[in-house]
Amino acid sequence: MKFSVKRMSLAMVVVITMFSAVPVSAHMGWTQTNSPITAIGESAYVELLVGNHTNEHRSYRVDANWGSMKHSTFVFDPSGNKIDISSTEFYTGENDPSVKNSNINNEYIASFRANEPGAYIISAQGESVASYSGYPTLTKRSAKSFVAVSDITNMQRVQSLRGFQRQVSPDRAEWIPLFNPAAVKPGQVLNAKYLVRGVPMADVHVNVIRRSTKDSLDLTTDKDGIVTYTAGPADYYLIAAKPELKEKVEGQYDAINFEATMTYVIQNGTLNVKPAKVQAIPDVFLNGKEITIPGLSYKNGVYTAPINWLKFKVSIFAEGTGNVNLRRSLEAAGFQVEQFDAVGAIPAMIVIRK
Question: How far apart are CA 288 and CA 79, in angstroms?
Fold first, then answer.
């Protein structure tokens, strides 16, 4: 198996006077994928939605669309490439002005082809200026969702992926899931971190909203910018925050709303294929090419490899003899490592990238 992938200049004075941890308000934008897990080589579809106006701004209901908001939609693939998929967006509603209720309550859908296995992050990013509290306010949006791409499309195969925790929006706010958003089950304890320009922010009001009901959680980030809660029943979920910073640019805006949303799917997770009694040697890929690691072993959930292999095959300096933790050693040397767990008689897969 071989994997491949396509590959304000303005002098301004910014004055930061205060931080307002106010409840989520006004319209918010979010993205969601039509499936949390997609097969290698298939297309993934991303819906761009706007709403969150009813139920005191704790709603998944759609009442506008992204067409009036300047934005771009990006995919960050497992190799770290940033791919603009804005040109794939199409409007699903009626846009003929002669038709009643045209251009409202409908969505845009973007798509991309997933050519390699791993964690994909989707981020729609936009900006707009409006007067919410009697003064002009710039809203900087970040709307994230996720897709796990695998040779086998079930939770068991992708549950060990870690690449969803990458930061991709250093110029605005964003949510970092400290869990695997493609493999969430009901009752699981979840942690998510809110960042503004890469820095965790405390005391931010947060809503976690279930799609099919009016159920929602009201939370506040801790000193590390983290909220902790328990996963609900199987459904789509939206986590949203929109704090305001009093950053003023004369003649343009008096404050910035750092809007950040993130969606994920909680699945029932009832299918669990028992592993074979004798585990096969995992398939290992280095930069898309299948390789063999002589002496690779597995114990207590950890793969280890001979130090000599690390020294001479991937040029990692290591002292001593015997086997060492494969993932830890490679990541310390700047490699990306993802593990796909074994399913039945199908062996595990280890994907290494540099």
Answer: 10
- Dist CA 74 CA 82 (whole Å): 6
Among residues 211, 239, 266, which one ends one of the domains? 266
Query: Which helix (H) or strand (E) is 50 found in, with range?
Result: strand 43-51
**Closest to 3 measured CA to CA, from 344, 340, 345:** 340
256 and 317, same domain (yes or no) = no
The neighbour count for residue 47, using CB atoms within 10 Å, is 18
Q: Are strands 205-210 and 199-200 parallel, antiparallel or unpaired?
A: unpaired
pLDDT at 59 over 80: no
Mean pLDDT of the chain: 86
pTM of the complete model beyond 0.85: yes
Q: What is the mean pLDDT of residues 247-256?
A: 92
Contact 311, 129 (CB under 8 A): no
Asked if 197 and 171 touch (Cβ cutoff 8 Å), the reply is: yes
What pLDDT does 98 receive? 83
Range of the domain at 346: 283-353
Structure token pair of residue 31: 């993205």
Q: At 177, list the tokens.
A: 């899931």
